[in-house]
Automatic annotation (TrEMBL):
It is a multi-pass membrane protein. The keyword RNA-binding does not apply. This is Sodium/hydrogen exchanger 7. One of its GO terms (biological process) is sodium ion import across plasma membrane. The keyword Ribonucleoprotein does not apply. Keywords: Cell membrane, Endosome, Ion transport, Membrane, Signal, Sodium, Sodium transport, Transmembrane, Transmembrane helix, Transport. It comes from the Eukaryota. It is found in: Cell membrane; Recycling endosome membrane. GO terms for molecular function: potassium:proton antiporter activity; sodium:proton antiporter activity. Belongs to the monovalent cation:proton antiporter 1 (CPA1) transporter (TC 2.A.36) family. The chain crosses the membrane at residues 40-57, 64-82, 156-173, 185-211, 223-242, 249-273, 293-319, 331-348. Residues 49-362 form the Cation/H+ exchanger transmembrane domain. Residues 1-18 form the signal peptide. It comes from Cacopsylla melanoneura.
Length: 370
């Protein structure tokens, strides 16, 4: 009986200790939930303020500043407040060292997850294991939790926010004028963005040669890669002004089409430059014609395959919605249209292509065939 009583008492103590730790973990989870709600509330207030500002500018017919520019200013102000104001939620950092040092040297990349054995409060012989997921390189070790939560995840933008934007752009596009000016649009997007990338990259390289501290750290290919990244422009403010002023539809189609395609061109061009540097360039650092031609082939192939995937998926979507009875159910037809377009984006991205071009031509092809 005494032995049974001791076992029951030990179990109750371990359960109580585990419960205390679990309560603190629940409090930590609740704090994270409150921070997420606070960030979403902040973003919602920014959107409300932007909508009211747009109404005020349109009502007062103010022309000295467009509402999109003021929305950017709002974001900068709020971001500065979050960045430079104090916070009561600092992050806890624990340096982690593997038990086997040779195991760390055998890894070519950081591990995907870390398993941390953490002692239960009040019980030195009881540990719980917690997993931590790889997020990327840490630049600022002094970040607090609010800064971390407010930092926008680029994967959310590229995989969730960007596809509906391109879908709406392709759906609302005046296809007659877009395809009528497709040659000029492709000229501006392909040749114009390429020329801009090389001009900016060359100027950046010349500037780096004039700075002794930076001269040895960057190559000409690094400068070209930088030029390819910043060359594409998104004239959202100009398009909004065009929409308000009801400008010529051909001019609108040219500016809009170039702004949609130049992002894809820049992505493909930067990838081609990276391939030239990492896989094709010799160790001598000299120019190689074969490597250059292969990079150009990658550029043309990725863009063409992205366009082909979009056109094929668009035709399949049009056939499904046109020659089946799903058109008798408008809600199902709309859902199928959206899901097929989003699938096109994901197929292109999973194939190392550009989803922007694919989803744009998928929507345009679907509406054109229908």
């Amino acid at each position: 009986m005494i032995l049974i009583a001791v076992l029951v008492l030990s179990y109750c103590l371990a359960f109580a200790q585990g419960t205390a730790t679990d309560i603190e973990l629940d409090a930590k989870a609740q704090l994270a939930h409150r921070l997420d709600s606070l960030n979403l509330l902040l973003y919602t207030f920014l959107l409300i303020l932007t909508v009211l500002t747009i109404w005020l500018f349109k009502h007062r017919r103010l022309r000295f500043l467009h509402e999109t520019g003021l929305a950017v200013i709002y974001g900068l102000i709020v971001g500065a407040l979050i960045r430079y104001t104090g916070s009561t939620t600092p992050l806890l950092h624990i340096p982690v060292v593997p038990e086997n040092a040779t195991q760390l040297h055998q890894l070519s990349l950081p591990p995907d997850t870390l398993w941390l054995k953490f002692p239960v409060k009040g019980a030195s012989n009881v540990n719980k294991t917690y997993g931590y997921r790889f997020r990327g390189e840490i630049v600022d070790l002094e970040n607090n939790e609010i800064d971390l939560k407010a930092t926008f995840d680029p994967e959310i933008f590229f995989n969730i926010i960007l596809p509906p934007i391109i879908f709406h752009a392709g759906y609302s596009l005046k296809r007659k004028y877009f395809f009528k000016n497709l040659g000029a649009i492709l000229t501006f997007a392909l040749i114009g963005t390429t020329i801009s990338s090389f001009v900016i990259g060359t100027l950046m390289y010349v500037f780096l040669q004039l700075v002794p501290n930076l001269k040895s750290g960057f190559t000409f290919l690094d400068a070209l890669y930088f030029g390819a990244l910043i060359s594409p422009t998104d004239p959202l403010t100009i398009l909004a002004i065009f929409n308000d002023l009801k400008v010529d539809v051909n001019l609108y189609a040219l500016v809009f089409g170039e702004s949609v395609l130049n992002d894809a061109v820049a992505i493909v061009l930067s990838g081609a430059i990276q391939n030239y540097e990492e896989r094709y360039q010799s160790g001598t650092g000299g120019f190689e014609a074969n490597a250059f031609l292969l990079a150009v082939g990658d550029f043309a192939g990725i863009f063409s395959l992205s366009l082909l995937i979009g056109a094929v998926m668009g035709c399949i979507t049009a056939i499904l919605t046109k020659f089946t009875r799903v058109r008798d159910f408008p809600i199902l037809e709309s859902a199928l249209f959206v899901l097929m377009s989003y699938s096109t984006f994901l197929i292109a991205e999973a194939s190392d292509l550009t989803g922007v071009v694919s989803v744009l031509f998928c929507v345009s092809s679907t509406l054109h065939v229908q």
